[in-house]
Design goal:
Layout: H1 2-30, E1 49-54, H2 70-84, E2 89-92, H3 107-116, E3 127-129, H4 141-144, E4 153-154, E5 160-167, E6 170-176, H5 179-182, H6 187-205, E7 210-216, H7 232-244, E8 249-252, E9 258-264, E10 288-289, E11 294-298, E12 302-308, E13 328-333, E14 337-343, E15 347-354, E16 362-367
Parallel strand pairs: 1-2, 2-3, 3-4, 6-7, 7-8, 8-12, 11-16
Antiparallel strand pairs: 1-14, 5-6, 9-12, 9-13, 10-13, 14-15, 15-16
Length: 370
């Protein structure tokens, strides 16, 4: 009897497993746009880059907005903007799949890659992703191995880096971290990743051709969100490393909203650690803009942090007073959207787009001092 039950379960597993495999193979084999996608496909790049940042988007069961899944509204806005300004790739700040899964044949990831983002201007664009806390709950390895089925997917290991030539042999260094490890309980793995990060950033700092440094990690150091707020562990241990090696831009998600922080460089010294006070904060779903609708900076004046967790999961309210002296909040909005980032040898432009809008809701520009 037990043998028969075991056989029935095995057959059921095969029945459920085979269709998505066949569909994926058919998708890839019938569409030539996937054939040229390789890991690090930007190795031959020699000019400015433009890419989209999205986070916390892997939820196809979030409450609908205007009769559409929020992530579909975001992807369509990404498509519309990419028609005007073509992009080179997409970065995911994590929480790529909800609910928790441990299968390469996850139906959510399949629908996202081959339906939601399988539209003209985004189709075939390489993705560079990091793991979020929801990606790590069961087994994070399936996303690392997902490129076997999704050729646009790039996550070669838990943390990785590469550089892109943006013109005149000048480089932007891109570094991707595993926040699950950094906030986990395995001290050996934590130390190993921090040592690796120091070496990567040191190499970039000592390379005169590397003029921009961008780091992606799921959890933000600073956040105005009602649900999470600042991450004290990363403020204590990650921030000093990023400051030491003059990182220009940190890309994050986790908090389901959009926000921009600057942590000022005062006379070459890092900000003193200050924990976020534990108190009741007033929170809102309205747009929060301090100063102006655009903000201009000179490279080295501040470290910039983008919080982009508004890709599709249910939104969190913004608490504008949820700040410390370590970083200033320039902009925040509890609304679905994404961030567009342009990089060349003289500047970085950061645009925050709300789903459905044609114009950016906020812009930050960083210029080299030369």
């Amino acid at each position: 009897m037990k043998v028969r039950e075991g056989l029935m379960l095995f057959l059921l597993f095969i029945i459920l497993l085979v269709p998505p495999i066949i569909v994926i193979i058919a998708e890839v084999s019938q569409d030539n746009s996937y054939s040229d996608i390789k890991k690090y496909p930007l190795a031959k790049n020699s000019g400015p880059i433009r890419f989209h940042l999205i986070g916390d988007f892997g939820d196809l069961e979030a409450p609908k907005t205007n009769n559409s899944e929020p992530v579909e509204l975001v992807s369509q806005t990404m498509e519309n903007q990419a028609k005007q300004r073509p992009i080179s790739f997409i970065i995911s700040a994590g929480d790529n799949v909800y609910p928790h899964s441990a299968s390469n044949f996850d139906q959510t990831l399949f629908k996202l890659m081959y339906k939601t983002f399988d539209i003209q201007q985004l189709k075939g664009k390489p993705w560079f992703a990091v793991l979020g806390n929801h990606d790590c709950v069961v087994d994070s390895e399936f996303e690392i191995n997902a490129d076997e089925l999704y050729p646009m997917w790039n996550m070669p290991t838990h943390y990785y880096n590469f550089s892109i030539n943006i013109g005149n042999e000048k480089l932007v260094g891109l570094t991707f971290l595993d926040g699950c490890i950094l906030l986990g309980n395995d001290q050996k793995k934590i130390d190993e990743q921090y040592q690796w990060l120091k070496q990567v950033l040191s190499d970039q700092e000592n390379d005169s051709n590397t003029i921009w440094k961008i780091v992606t990690v799921h959890m933000p150091m600073w956040s105005p969100g009602e649900y999470h707020g600042d991450n004290e562990v990363l403020k204590l241990y990650l921030y000093p490393i990023l400051f030491q090696y003059n990182v220009d831009l940190v890309l994050t998600g986790h908090e389901h909203l959009m926000a921009h922080y600057v942590s000022l460089n005062v006379n070459g010294k890092p900000q003193t650690y200050e924990p976020l006070p534990s108190q009741n904060y007033s929170c809102t779903s309205d747009e929060i803009v301090f100063y102006n609708d655009a903000s201009d900076w000179i490279q080295g004046e501040a470290m910039h942090e983008v919080v982009q967790g508004a890709g599709g999961r249910e939104l969190y309210k913004v608490c504008p007073e949820k700040v410390t002296s370590m970083a200033d909040l320039l902009y925040a909005w509890s609304n679905y959207g994404f961030t567009e980032i342009y990089v060349d040898t003289e500047k970085i432009h950061i645009y925050y787009f709300v789903a459905g809008n044609e114009l950016p809701s906020y812009t930050v520009r960083i210029f080299t001092s030369s």
